[in-house]
Amino acid sequence: MGLEASQEEIAVIEVVDAVYGPNLRALMAEGFDGIPHELGDDMSRPPRGATER
Amino acid sequence: MELLDRSLRDQAAAIAAGEADPEEVLEAALRRIEERDPAVNAIVEIFPEESRAMLAEAPRGPLYGVPVAIKDEWPLPWRAERLGAAQHIGPAPERGESGPYRALRDAGAVIVGVANMHEYGSGSTGHISVFGPARNPWDNERSPGGSSSGPAAAVAARMVAGAVGADGVGSIRYPAAYCGLTGLKPTFGRSVMQGHHLPQTTTIVSGPLCRDAADCRLLGGVLFGEVLGDGGASEMRIGIVPGELWDDTQPAVREACGRAVETLREATGSEVEDVNVDGREHVLIASVLIGQTEDLAHVTPQRVEALGNDVSLIARALLRYRMLIPAVAIAKAQQVRTLVRRSLAELFEHVDVLAWPTVAAPAPRLDDPSVELPSGVYPADYVNPRQAGIANLAGVPAISLPVGLSPEGLPVALQLIAAWGRDELLLDAAEKLEQATDRRWVDAMPSLVSA
Predict the structure, then answer these.
(1) Do B317 and A26 make contact, defined as CB atoms within 8 angstroms?
(2) Is residue A12 less than 8 Å (CB to CB) from chain B?
(3) Does A39 contact chain B (CB < 8 Å)?
(4) Which of A17, A35, A45 is facing B339, going by the closest CB pair?
(5) CB B221 within 8 A of CB B62
(6) How far B60 CA sits from the closest chain A CA (Å)?
(7) For chain B, what is the HEC assignment?
(8) Measured between CB atoms, which of A32, A35, A43 is closest to B189?
């Protein structure tokens, strides 16, 4: 990506990754099979039924 | 008691009844900011001429003549927002009439100051800002919470009785909790957001920070553009989610919140039952991933590299880290969102409110914003979204209200969450709890004020 970072910035990134990394890796390990996509999602309302189209 | 020490609704009523002169109230508020703000750094800019002009043209609305503050997150006609940061990433902000500004103006309110916030809104502690850290009136070596740090500190220090904040991953509720206030995160889309720098947001809402629920009802109604009526908080079904939301909190927090739920149950003739929310083990990371990547469209390597040292090291590093987050993680976070929304929709078919501590520990120190929990010591920024992120992920309303003091004398807060559109139920429930506790916690006075 061509994005440069200083040693200080890299050190902070490493700390952040050490803190959030386990949660991120646990999320990445999920397949989430069987969860129907929410169609026309609208955060101001409850989701429409799984079978609704 | 001076008028500024009274509630938002009392101030409005006194001015409406002709018992108080709004010009004198405004000048008193400006004097109080001058007197108290150096200790808490809540208000980053005042503009007496514009405030006086607002008052001169104010309609006789529900907040006629009442001084309020607004977070540094919206443009005003005479000032562009700065987001607590030295530089913007992307298009420069412009002055203008944001939705919250118009709502306040049309209600007759007088904006007396812009309130501090955590840099770019990307922290829950308020200890980083181009204006310097905001400080907690209960202990000014402590965090006032964030990102709506200034609104909370200003209300807790009795500079204003109401302030407008914003909540994208708990940013109204953490400061409310740390500063002993009541803060409402409205249902997504119900409060005004026009003019926000992230018009595409699916998580952020404007909302009120006040001392109690009745004031949140008044200021919230102004932001909603409707009168918030009776929510019917009686004979409720209160859902408790066993596990880390309760167990991995400091003992004083767990005990005070447990007592508050029991008091609410008794006061409202309600029932308490254990429930579960599917996907909650991923709420922390999913809410952070979604909340912290909504603004990335404007980010380019060149713009990030152009940020100078007046932007904090952590912000510069976090921007780089965010650019490296794999797309698959965002896709999975969206699946967590779907899972949580479906689970909550099912739960709210038979439960009225969910309850757990707003934050796992009272306000951390500004020079070390970490918290010690039964499972270990963590940055407050890391654990806070575990408690509050679900409402932003799902779009549901949530309220934080004070329910006790820790052994160090710091506020402890309970969070109540309800179904979409049931904001009024949360306000009612909070009022019932205030009444049942003789307003002990909402009327508790921070050391800065009592001194």
Answers:
(1) no
(2) yes
(3) no
(4) A35
(5) yes
(6) 31
(7) CCHHHCCHHHHHHHHHCCCCCHHHHHHHHHHHHHHHHHHHCCEEECCHHHHHHHHHCCCCCCCCCCEEEEECCCCECCECCCCCCCCCCCCCCCCCCCHHHHHHHHCCCEEEEEECCCHHHCCCCCCCCCCCCCCECCECCECCCCCCHHHHHHHHCCCCCEEEEEECCCCCHHHHHHHCCEEEECCCCCCCCCCCCCCCCCCCEEEEEECCHHHHHHHHHHHHCCCCCCCCCCCCEEEECCCHHHHCCCHHHHHHHHHHHHHHHHHHCCEEEECCCCCHHHHHHHHHHHHCCCCHHHCCHHHHHCCCCCCCHHHHHHHHHHHCCCHHHHHHHHHHHHHHHHHHHHHCCCCCEEEEECCCCCCCECCECEEEECCEEEEHHHHHHHHHHHHHHHCCCEEEEEEEECCCCCEEEEEEEECCCCHHHHHHHHHHHHHHCCCCCCCCCCHHHHC
(8) A43
CA distance B383 to chain A (A): 10
Cβ of A9 within 8 Å of Cβ of B304? The answer is no
- Whose tokens are 């079904």? That residue is B237
In Å, how far is B4's CA from the nearest CA of chain A? Answer: 35
**Nearest Cα residue in chain B from A10:** B317
Q: What is the pTM of this model?
A: 0.97
A13 neighbourhood in chain B, CB within 8 Å = 317, 320-321
- Going residue by residue through chain B, which has 451 residues, state the pLDDT in tens, using 9 for 90 and above: 899 999 999 999 999 999 999 999 999 999 999 999 999 999 999 999 999 999 999 999 999 999 999 999 999 999 999 999 999 988 889 999 999 999 999 999 999 999 999 999 999 999 999 999 999 999 999 999 999 999 999 999 999 999 999 999 999 999 999 999 999 999 999 999 999 999 999 999 999 999 999 999 999 999 999 999 999 899 999 999 999 999 999 999 999 999 999 999 999 999 999 999 999 999 999 999 999 899 898 899 999 999 999 999 999 999 999 998 999 999 999 999 999 999 999 999 999 999 999 999 999 999 999 999 999 999 999 999 999 999 999 999 999 999 999 999 999 999 999 999 999 999 999 999 999 999 999 999 998 887 7
Q: Which of A13, A23, A42, A48 to mutate to test the interface with B (most CBs of B within 10 A)?
A: A23
The whole-angstrom separation of Cα A13 and Cα B49 is: 44
Cβ pair B282:A30 closer than 8 A: yes
